[in-house]
Amino acid sequence: MTDILTLPIDIHCSKLLDWLRSRRHIKSEWPQKLSQIRQLISSAIGDMPENDEIATLLSNASLLTTTEADTKNIFGRYSSQRMKDWQNIIAKYEEDNVYLAEIASLLVDLAQYQIPGFKKRISRLEATIQLEKQVDKNEDEIDFGDDLFETEAMQSADYGIEEIAVVDDKNLKDSNCKSHPNVEESVARGEEALTVLENVFTNALLLTELLELKSFFKMRHHELNTDHFASELLFANDSVRLLANGMSFVEKWLQATEQIIQKLQDPVLCHLTELRSKAEYLEYLSSEIYSHKERTEKCRQTVDALNNRQKDATKEIQQLLEEIQNLAAIARDLKSFIEQNISKRYNNRKVNIVGSTVTI
């Protein structure tokens, strides 16, 4: 029996109120009594915060013992109504251990809800900051299209401007050219005046032919890799020549075809082709560039907004950490007070309020 009495009493924080109620240290109707006590406090000192500390109330009462010292009667009791009100409030707090129930309720609320809630909020803010840092990193990698037309195709494009060669008059005299006045001369106009690459229709036709040629070389490359000679029956005339040149021949022409297709499909070259063939395409292209710049500006504004949110989140995290430290200090004081109070009721046995939430 002696060994049992020396064992510590472990109480889980979440079950603290139930433990006090089951041991009859507090009654189930303590919330109603606490509400009545708060009404008495309100009538005694005016508005008082609901969750004010008990120490404030006790300090006010001890202060009255000095200010109301002259109001004692012959029996040593205070005749001041103000002092009687405070003594009545303290008596009701101590009756049925209402003060112990309230302190236990405050500890459970701090350890189980408020502090964990702040920690979850910090975790969400930290995740937001990490996401916004990733956005900032991607911003450095984004091409906003400031050099939209500064490409190799733009530099190598032929705008139809040719150098005029200077010819010596002496050579003209010695030339064998003869005029033919009866031959009709015609000047190409409209689409007929455009080259194969400048004309949209012929450009598309050429690209189609090149794509078909690319497919042919790919198929032939596959046949040579798989040692499939059935194609020789279909290409009896060309198979010997192609096979003689071997794989390098096919790969060489396939690579050359792909390079030509890549140059023909260059966006800048396509725009230039459309500009040469369609006068109204300039207006369309201008509107696209303007729209692109608008989207770019919106993206930059979004990035700036995210940077501001990141700064606000960092500031809020700092404030929450300070608040957690303050609440943790209060929770430790409440925990120590409850452990000492319960220990006195069990012959000074050691009392531990356990649980991960109280490890603050």
TrEMBL record:
<dbReference type="GO" id="GO:0012505">
    <property type="term" value="C:endomembrane system"/>
</dbReference>
<dbReference type="InterPro" id="IPR008491">
    <property type="entry name" value="CDK5RAP3"/>
</dbReference>
<feature type="coiled-coil region">
    <location>
        <begin position="303"/>
        <end position="330"/>
    </location>
</feature>
<dbReference type="GO" id="GO:0007346">
    <property type="term" value="P:regulation of mitotic cell cycle"/>
</dbReference>
<dbReference type="Pfam" id="PF05600">
    <property type="entry name" value="CDK5RAP3"/>
</dbReference>
<keyword id="KW-0175">Coiled coil</keyword>
<comment type="similarity">
    <text>Belongs to the CDK5RAP3 family.</text>
</comment>
<protein>
    <submittedName>
        <fullName>CDK5 regulatory subunit-associated protein 3</fullName>
    </submittedName>
</protein>
